[in-house]
């Protein structure tokens, strides 16, 4: 089988020159991917000029087409977002809208281009809303064609109310979070390998 590729989209509001708690948790997945010989690339979405809209290319310097090429090549997609006011970031919402705008693109079998790919979600913050944010991401990705394995999310939000975030609080030591990282990471890889050998049939799923 060909080596699997994982694309990790950090939908933080911070660019790459700033420390990101979401990055720190996403890097726990990279350890698993690399241990299983899965090629992984981590991208800060705000480093790209992603326009608002639902077209494949909004023009005027829109860099979504560049990102979309990486998305099409990846077998595994992992979306990470911080929580603000109990919700996923505005960046992650924009990304979901652009995913939807590109959902008419087909693979070589005439199926949606997101078929035979798997997805998961990661959430960080220091307030409630992790499952709500992750649920929005997972539902949106499943609606456009991504397959979702069991236990597809990992999160860390600390104690209720304002306080230290993942890096400062050493959230990587949290057993519950690490358990979910292990389950999600390995389940994503396992399901992606299944699709390599047994892709979704075209019957009823191709135009």
From TrEMBL:
Residues 5-151 form the NADPH-dependent FMN reductase-like domain. SUPFAM superfamilies: Flavoproteins. Pfam families: FMN_red (PF03358). The keyword Iron does not apply. Keywords: Flavoprotein, FMN. InterPro entries: Flavoprotein-like_sf (IPR029039), FMN_Rdtase-like_dom (IPR005025), ISF_SsuE-like (IPR051796). Gene3D superfamilies: 3.40.50.360. GO terms for molecular function: oxidoreductase activity. The keyword Flavoprotein applies. This is Multimeric flavodoxin WrbA.
């Amino acid at each position: 089988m060909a080596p699997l590729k994982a694309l990790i989209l950090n939908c933080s509001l911070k660019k790459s020159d700033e420390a990101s708690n979401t990055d720190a948790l996403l890097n726990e997945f990279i350890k698993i991917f690399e241990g299983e010989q899965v090629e992984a690339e981590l991208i800060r979405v705000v480093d790209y000029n992603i326009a608002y809209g639902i077209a494949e290319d909004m023009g005027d310097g829109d860099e979504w087409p560049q990102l979309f090429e990486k998305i099409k090549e990846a077998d595994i997609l992992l979306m990470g977002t911080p929580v603000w006011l109990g919700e996923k970031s505005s960046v992650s919402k924009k990304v979901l809208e652009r995913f939807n705008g590109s959902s008419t693109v087909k693979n070589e079998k005439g199926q949606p281009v997101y078929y035979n790919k798997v997805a998961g979600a990661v959430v960080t913050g220091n307030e409630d809303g992790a499952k709500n944010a992750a649920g929005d991401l997972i539902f949106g990705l499943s609606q456009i064609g991504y397959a979702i394995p069991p236990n597809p999310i990992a999160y860390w939000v600390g104690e209720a109310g304002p306080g230290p975030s993942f890096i400062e609080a050493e959230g990587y030591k949290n057993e519950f979070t690490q358990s979910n990282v292990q389950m999600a990471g390995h389940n994503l890889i396992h399901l992606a390998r299944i699709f390599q050998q047994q892709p979704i049939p075209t019957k009823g799923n191709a135009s």
